[in-house]
Specification:
With about 575 residues, this protein is an alpha+beta fold. A six-stranded antiparallel beta sheet has the order 3-2-1-6-5-4, with helices on both faces. The protein has a five-stranded antiparallel beta sheet with strand order 8-7-11-10-9. A five-stranded mixed beta sheet has the order 13-15-16-18-17. Helix 2 runs antiparallel to helix 7 and helix 8 runs antiparallel to helix 9. The longest helix is centred in the middle third of the chain and has 59 residues. The two termini are about 35 Å apart.
Length: about 575
């Protein structure tokens, strides 16, 4: 299917203007370079504004998180104060009974605590608000206190202390003699895990969690929101225990973008995590560069519109005119667009003038080529007539000659002359006088040889010829070689094992641009040591010498083979291309 001019125009337009070397992309590149300083300044200013907005949003969310966790902070700070005060008072009591009685009275006056006790340095709680001593050596508080006595807050549930989860607040007692134990207060979790009420209803967090320095969750304000459904992948509470408040945005497992604000409530002991909806300050980073990108895009659109109106559409129209002229020699219509610039109008005028000159030159060359073809055909016609005249003279001479050997020589010579005449007739009748159809030429030679006196009626001729175009310089030796070899084949053909006498001519194209000619005939089976043409009577005489000479002119040696009842002569040669001399131009 041929490609139309419109399709070529669209393909050239799509591949030319928007390619890596097109005008549009080059203008975009230069404008981008020109606008780059302004764009960088705008990006910097926008980024600074975004960072300031983000910082304000962080501070606001951190303050709200600290405000929401204030009840937990106040309760635990008060418990630490009580523990430190009791550590001084309990140390003055003489026995465990009076100590426990004192703590029991203290709890009755303050109903915030479920238990208060003094754990000795050996890990046994002998003085407490409970009725019996407790072994605390298997608890997490004792493990931490025995390693490094510090203030500790942890969550536990022991039936000896209370029937519900409690938050344990432990403060070490140290004197000049070293670690003497610690005071432990148990606060029911429900007393400080109430819903957030210290912030405005429109600014409540999705979830507020308090946890200790080990990442152990102490309180959860919204039990309907499981923490594992809100924390992003890789978010570990034990790693969020720094002294500095931080806020970061990430995506929850549900895909919702949330802000995670972490602030310390009790230094080194209790921290609060507030999970908030993403506010405007935590917008995605690409929005930071939206304004510079819009400014750049608007500038490019204005520039492209101007260039398209003033240059590109006129250049495209001129390009379409050039492609139409190249395809069917159609000149562009008269007149140009009124808004075309002077430079483009001059280019179009030069193109129209150049196209007119090309048409005149082509017309003159076509006339010269036509005249040359007529002259060449006339030359081939005259040469063919002269060769036929020579053949007629030779026929008259053969009729006057009585010697059979002389008549045979003249007949062979006449066949060669007629072969040359056949070539010139083919050239005269073909449309391209510089090319010869090799298949047609060999068919005429075979027909000419079959009609000669040497052909036998019982002989079968087999042809396998491929249409090939050859130059006359190759067609002449090819026809003469075929004529000589075919005459020998017809003269020496004998019945094969099936009793058939045949002659075969094959001309086929091979790989690598070569052509192979094979002429074979039926013959008696050769002896085991008779494989090549270097032996036998055929290798002698003028005919074989001519065959070898014609094969050399074609560009390939001739080879013969006699085996399995077949005698075959073949030669391979490359197809030559037309070569012009400088004087031809």
């Amino acid at each position: 299917m041929t490609e139309t001019t419109g399709e070529r125009d669209r393909a050239a337009q799509a591949g030319g203007w928007f390619s890596a070397h097109g005008l549009v992309l080059r203008v975009v590149a230069f404008l981008t370079i020109a606008l780059m300083p302004i764009g960088l300044i705008a990006i910097y200013q926008t980024a600074e504004f975004q960072r300031e907005t983000l910082r304000r949003s962080e501070l606001s969310l951190l303050a709200l998180t600290a405000q929401a966790g204030a009840p937990v902070e106040q309760t635990i700070e008060r418990a630490f104060g009580v523990a430190e005060a009791l550590g001084v008072v309990i140390d003055e009591l003489d026995d465990a009974e009076s100590c426990s009685s004192y703590l029991d009275r203290y709890i009755e006056g303050r109903r915030l605590y479920a238990m208060i006790g003094l754990v000795d340095a050996d890990g046994i709680m002998r003085c407490s608000s409970l009725d019996a001593p407790l072994d605390m050596r298997e608890t997490r508080i004792w493990e931490q206190m025995s390693v490094s006595p510090n203030s500790i807050v942890t969550l536990s549930q022991r039936t000896e202390i209370a029937d519900e989860p409690v938050i344990n607040v432990a403060s070490p007692i140290e004197t000049g003699n070293g670690f003497k134990g610690y005071v432990q207060l148990a606060i029911p979790q429900r007393r400080i895990a109430s819903p957030v009420s210290s912030v405005s209803p429109d600014r409540k967090p999705i979830q507020l969690v308090t946890y200790n320095e080990l990442g152990e969750v102490l309180t959860v304000q919204n039990a309907g929101k499981p923490l594992e459904d809100l924390l992003p992948e890789g978010f570990d509470l034990s790693e969020q225990t720094g002294l500095r408040a931080t806020a970061s945005a990430a995506r929850a497992p549900s895909g919702e973008r949330l802000v995670y604000a972490v602030t310390p409530l009790v230094t080194g002991a209790v921290f609060a995590l507030g999970i908030w909806p993403a506010a405007e300050g935590f917008a995605t980073p690409w929005l930071t560069n939206l304004f510079p990108i819009l400014m750049w895009a608007a500038s490019l659109l204005v520039a492209y519109y101007a260039i398209h109106r003033l240059v590109i559409r006129h250049v495209r129209r001129l390009g379409r005119s050039m492609r139409r002229f190249g395809a069917n020699r159609q000149l562009p219509p008269q007149g140009t667009a009124g808004d075309m610039s002077r430079e483009l109008r001059e280019i179009e005028g030069e193109f129209v003038q150049m196209a007119g000159n090309i048409l005149q030159d082509e017309a003159r060359l076509e006339d010269q080529l036509r005249e040359r073809g007529i002259l060449l055909k006339e030359v081939h016609h005259r040469v063919k007539n002269n060769l036929q005249l020579i053949s007629s003279i030779m026929s008259m001479q053969m009729r006057r000659t009585q010697d059979p050997a002389t008549r045979e020589i003249l007949s062979r010579l006449q066949d060669r002359v007629l072969g040359l005449a056949t070539i010139h007739r083919t050239l005269y009748e073909s449309e391209d006088v510089g090319r010869v159809n090799a298949a047609r030429l060999l068919r005429e030679i075979v027909a000419q040889q079959s009609g000669a006196s040497g052909a036998r009626p019982e002989m079968t001729t087999r042809l396998d010829l491929e249409d090939l175009e050859l130059l006359p310089d190759q067609a002449v030796p090819l026809s003469l070689l075929t004529s000589e070899a075919l005459a020998n084949a017809m003269a020496n053909a004998t019945p094969d094992a099936e009793g058939t006498t045949w002659v075969s001519v094959s001309l086929r194209r091979e790989n690598g641009g070569t052509v192979r000619l094979e002429i074979s005939n039926s013959a008696p089976s050769a002896m085991p040591d008779q494989k090549t043409a270097s032996k036998g009577a055929r290798a002698q005489g003028l005919g074989m010498n001519l065959i070898q000479a014609f094969a050399a002119q074609l560009g390939g040696p001739s080879e013969t083979l006699h085996e399995a009842g077949i005698y075959r002569l073949s030669t391979g040669f490359p197809v030559r291309e037309m070569q012009y001399d400088p004087q031809d131009y």
